Amino acid sequence: MHRVTILATVHSPIGVATASKLTQILEEIRPDAIFMEMPNEAFDQAFQVFRRTNLESHAIVGYRENHRAALLPVDLPTPNEDFFINWGRLHEILKAKSEQYKNLFELDRNRIYSDGFKYLNSESCETHWETVDRLIASQIDQLHDSDLSQIYNTWAEHNDRRESAMMKNISLLCSAHSFNNPVFLVGAAHRRAMVRRAVQESTNRDPGIHWVLPTVE
Q1: Around Cβ 61, how many Cβ atoms within 10 Å?
Q2: 36-51, pLDDT tens digit by residue?
Q3: 156: which of 84, 124, 132, 147 is 20 to 30 A away, CA to CA?
């Protein structure tokens, strides 16, 4: 059985959540394979053409200066531009309509700024995003706007497909290779869903993977 560490990250540096800190955490875990929240086409840009500049990419490059590790993208293809435009519009409408919604995002950013990866890999962060999800659903119901409801449903369904596909792809890769200590880098907003799916898998007769949640300081 493979042991795969789920390490929650943020895609852009905020406060103490930096690429160098993530490199340090990877140095402590010492993975020989890194599963990435990234589709194949983005992987080509990040590590072959070096056009992508997100935090995880920089951290991985720093880690691989001293250690060998297979890089394995496991995400679905990136949706078209309209998907992100529509979600951005919904996000701005919710911020304007709900002071609580706006404050939750400010609180999350402040926690990342001060506590970095310790917060991102905590139950507190999971609880935070659970609260955000409930508030979004509540606000959508109150708006009675079919277009916004469709945008939200499309966003939620796509994230569900992504999370399912990433877990499946990791399982397939682990079945095909003999990794010693793989790690899965994933945005913190997905951590709760990944943990839930990991618990569900652990109830199977032969899950194949033991998912590890690290304690990050």
Answers
A1: 15
A2: 998 887 676 655 544 4
A3: 124
Tokens of 85: 């435009």
Q: H or E element: which one contains 6?
A: strand 2-9
Q: Quote the tokens at residue 189.
A: 């907003």
Q: Which residues pair with residue 17 across a beta bridge? A: 14
| pLDDT at position 114 | 98
Q: Where is 83: in which H helix or E strand?
A: helix 81-97
pLDDT (average), residues 21-27: 97
Residue 49's pLDDT is what? 43
Cα separation, 69 vs 106, in Å, equals: 35
CA dihedral sign, ordered 167, 171, 173, 179? positive
Residue 167 pLDDT exceeds 70: yes
For residue 154, the Cα-to-chain-centroid distance in whole angstroms is 18
Identify the pLDDT of residue 217: 84
Residues 6+ apart with CB under 8 A from 189: 129
